[in-house]
Write a structure and sequence with these properties.
The chain is α+β, with helices and mostly antiparallel strands. The chain has a single domain, classed as tt1808, chain A (Alpha-Beta Complex). 20% of the residues lie in helices and 39% in strands. It has a 6-stranded mixed β-sheet with strand order 4-5-6-7-8-9, with helices on both faces. Helix 2 links the parallel strand 6 and strand 7.
């Protein structure tokens, strides 16, 4: 797998039916290791390294926009159960562009996250909602968890 612009993390990886599979500690199961899954698993580990409790992290869940099913990559809830961080992961071979930002903003109409992250593991973009300007401003990194 490609070297990412994230810290190095250890993973449980094995081969099954000619596929590499990786253990997802959030879903508590083995997942086929696709290029996008590699990014998702690395970013989950990155979130955990910032002291976010695993109990607040969810991934690969279906939600609906106008009765149309969509699937988010990673969501981190706050202690009140509201979506705090929405993460959209792309394969490291995909260059992040405005279409990806538009996609995550469409998802956020329903999810109402205060922070949004777009990542392909190489490029990591962090945004936080500014209540004064009613817009998202870019940040340098994911802040450490605090209650």
């Amino acid at each position: 797998m490609k070297k990412l612009n994230l810290p190095f993390f250890e993973f449980k990886i094995k081969k099954e039916n000619k596929n590499n599979i990786i253990f997802d500690e959030i879903r508590k199961k083995w997942i086929v290791l696709t290029p996008e899954e590699w990014i998702r698993q690395n970013f989950i580990k990155y979130i955990i390294s910032k002291n976010y409790p695993t109990s607040l992290i969810n991934c690969e869940k279906v939600f609906y926009i106008n009765k149309i099913p969509k699937r988010y990559d990673i969501v981190v809830y706050n202690s009140s159960g509201e979506v705090d961080i929405l993460v959209e992961c792309k394969s490291s071979d995909i260059k992040i562009n405005k279409d990806h930002f538009d996609q995550v903003m469409r998802y956020n109409i329903e999810l109402k996250s205060k922070r949004i992250i777009l990542t392909n593991g190489i490029e990591n973009y962090y945004f936080k909602f500014n209540e004064i300007t009613n817009d998202y401003i870019q940040e340098k990194d994911l802040i450490n968890y605090s209650k």
